[in-house]
Amino acid sequence: MSFEEYCEILLKPSTELISDEYAHDNGTACVHIFIFKENYEAFFVDCMKLLGYSIPDTNIHQLSTRTEVLSSLQKICDETKDKCSLIILFWGPFKSDRKFVLNDGSCIKMIEIWSKFISSNCLTLKEKPKIFIFNGFHEKHSHGSVARHMENTEEDSMRVIKGSVDNFSYNIPAEGDILIVFKQNNDLRSSVEYMDSLCSNLQNFSEREDIFSLLTITDFLSHPILISTMTRKFYLKFNPNRGLQLSIREKYNKIEEAIQKMRENIIYLTKDNKKVRDVSETLTEVPDSTNDLKKASSTEENLHRRIFRSEGGLKFRPRSNTASKLIDIEKLNKTRADNRPPWKF
Predict the structure, then answer these.
(1) Which band of pLDDT confidence, cut at 50, 70 and 90, is reported for residue 39?
(2) Is it the case that residue 168 has pLDDT exceeding 50?
(3) Which of 89, 136, 151, 257 keeps 20 to 30 A from 3, CA to CA?
(4) Residue-level pLDDT at 340
(5) Which family does it belong to (predicted)?
(6) Which domain holds residue 268?
(7) Residues 6+ apart with CB under 8 A from 180
(8) According to the model, what pLDDT value does residue 135 have?
(9) In the chain, how many domains are there?
(10) Of the residues 257, 280, 303, which one is the last residue of a structural domain?
(11) What integer is the mean pLDDT of 207-216?
């Protein structure tokens, strides 16, 4: 028996031979929410509905007891036959050992949640994207202190030592198409702020960025921990253009709209000018007698322009521009000579 067969590892072909994006339909996606208290999930539900995902009330579960949570997970697994993807949001308090605390005081580990949907337990979701978002906040102890230290992941999910899985709160999946996100918060307020930031990213950038990028875009000092075995990119909203191509396409569409508006304005103004031009042309079409009268009046106006008022009476301006300039120069020199001071002679 080979090592791959012993560990139940499925070796997939190179990502260069497959498409870069998961093909899925938002209408057939399976989205479930496990919430510690009612109405905290409303913002996330509205956000996913705007993106085209359906989340009925039956897909919202309370963290009541361990038995009910495990039963709900198994029911979800049984109903994923015609589903193209799986998205689960698990939001609640957790202890220092990374175990989520339920309403009855019992605990559940993250591996117990996502391991329900691996290919050996849920064959219908094989080679389909499975996303698990864990948003937890520290549970305060009786003396009021808050656990801040976080242990590193020490074990793989491979069955190297039998029985060692129960000693750790979460492991790394050994198969592809799984994305695990864990965000630890110091209090409930921080967890609410993170969900608000996440929903804002989902609404604004789902067409351009994949889910991995959207989960890491945050203003918080503590970034979420991501464990991904995804073989392709998962986009929450479909668009033929992604990333920089989408930005260029959006700007190109805006330029096209501006050019179209300019074209319409030019056509509109051209039509108006044509109408005015037509009216002016009709006004200029007058009888010959009127044209003769206009010519006579224009001749008289030209004659008046040549007359200027002098010292004693009216004189005709010389027709030669050169002669008039010479006369003006002589007058100017004579004026300067008359007004020259005596001491300059």
Answers:
(1) confident
(2) no
(3) 151
(4) 61
(5) Belongs to the peptidase C14A family.
(6) 242-280
(7) 110, 114, 132, 134, 170, 173, 226, 227, 228
(8) 92
(9) 2
(10) 280
(11) 84
Mark whether 71 and 38 lie in a shared domain: yes
Pair (208, 92) in one structural domain: yes
Contact 33, 41 (CB under 8 A): yes
Is residue 72 a contact partner of residue 30, using CB atoms and an 8 Å limit?
no
Taking only the tens place, the pLDDT of each residue in 137-154 is: 987 643 343 334 344 444
Q: Are residues 114 and 217 in the same domain?
A: yes
Q: Is residue 61 part of a domain?
A: yes
How would you class 314 by CB atoms within 10 Å of its CB: exposed for 0-12, middle for 13-18, buried for 19 or more? exposed
Are 93 and 119 part of one and the same domain? yes
Using pLDDT thresholds of 50, 70 and 90, give the confidence band for residue 93. very high
Name the E strands within 159-280.
178-185, 225-228
Question: How many whole angstroms separate alpha carbon 259 and alpha carbon 264?
Answer: 9
Which amino acid is present at 84?
C
Structure confidence at residue 87 as a pLDDT band (50, 70, 90): very high
Please give the helix or strand (H or E) that residue 194 lies within, else none: helix 188-205
